[in-house]
Write a structure and sequence with these properties.
Length: 298
């Protein structure tokens, strides 16, 4: 009998970094056989990851969504997302990985929402397919990043930072206006509050489940937090909290053998029956139904 899967492994950037731990850019084949073997099991990263699949075939599951990968596909993964890749043949492409400190994506005052929107959006991830002309531009940027890291000439980190910024801006343009945060739509103050709210959810969704709890931490009224959330994302603050809890439950139901009761306690629910009702109310499936359907659909 196979061992019970009761956790999702967290992978740190040093596992891939042979030199500078804050930033990695590499051809997939250069990462070695361990990379391909490790990626077949569900796991999380504590860093931002961009995969560019140039050639080959694979199935990429991000959280509970499975993608049949075509050539020239870009995947953007934020820290904490659960993913795995099943390779039907050896693929060619690149991996770009970096710590938050390298780009400060969560700091609205340091970087525009154009960049962070690729990682933080209502779909929780971004998938982009490049055409032949776009491929040339992205390839040139990746090659320049690799050259800067290899030569390490004065101010190479500044150069790599700028190249990555440009890479993300180009990707945002292709992705479309849905991930672009314009000054007309989002005043700086409200954007800052909303990003702090999203960061607090990541830190506290297992213990805090009410809008009022987060509003207190942000020193604003719950009604204002809901207004800001609807203005900047189209959904209420309560929906953001519920979506994050449900996403984590789905991750565990999809990737582990934990029971609904075990998952309920892990997510901070005192009553597993209430958790099951909560899950079904917002997904139209019980936890057991979701697990069964998701497993048979893969």
């Amino acid at each position: 009998m196979a061992d019970k899967r009761n956790h999702i492994e967290m992978v740190s950037l040093p596992a891939y970094a042979h030199a500078a731990p804050g930033f990695v850019v590499s051809g997939l084949c250069e990462l070695g056989e361990d990379f391909f073997e490790c990626n077949t099991a569900p796991h999380r990263h504590d860093f931002y990851t961009i995969y560019w699949i140039k050639k080959g075939k694979l199935v990429h599951t991000i959280d509970t969504v499975t993608h049949e990968v075509k050539k020239n596909t870009l995947f953007f993964l934020a820290p904490g997302q659960v993913h795995k890749m099943t390779f039907s043949e050896k693929v060619e492409g690149y991996m770009i990985a970096f710590q938050d400190a390298f780009m400060c994506l969560k700091d609205q005052s340091q970087v525009s929402g154009i960049n962070s929107g690729l990682f933080f959006n209502n779909q929780f991830s971004s998938v982009i397919t490049l055409d032949s002309e776009q491929e040339k531009d992205f390839e040139a940027l990746v090659i320049m990043m690799m050259k800067e890291l290899a030569l390490r000439e004065p101010d190479y980190e500044t150069a790599v930072h700028g190249l990555l910024r440009y890479f993300l801006v180009l990707a945002s343009r292709i992705k479309g206006n849905s991930v672009i945060i314009t000054p007309e739509q989002h005043v700086a103050h409200n954007s800052s509050i909303f990003l702090r709210f999203k960061n607090l959810i990541e830190e506290k969704y297992k213990e805090l489940k009410n809008v009022s709890d987060y509003a207190d931490l942000l020193h604003i009224k719950p009604v204002l937090l809901n207004e800001i959330s609807k203005q900047l994302s189209g959904i209420t603050a309560g929906e953001h909290i519920r979506n994050r809890i449900i996403l984590e439950a789905q991750r565990y139901l999809f990737n582990t053998d934990l029971s609904a009761k075990e998952i309920a306690y892990d997510l901070g629910f005192d009553d597993p029956h209430y958790f099951s009702r909560f899950f079904k109310k917002y997904t139209n499936q019980s936890p057991s139904e979701f697990k069964e359907l998701s497993r048979t659909g893969v």
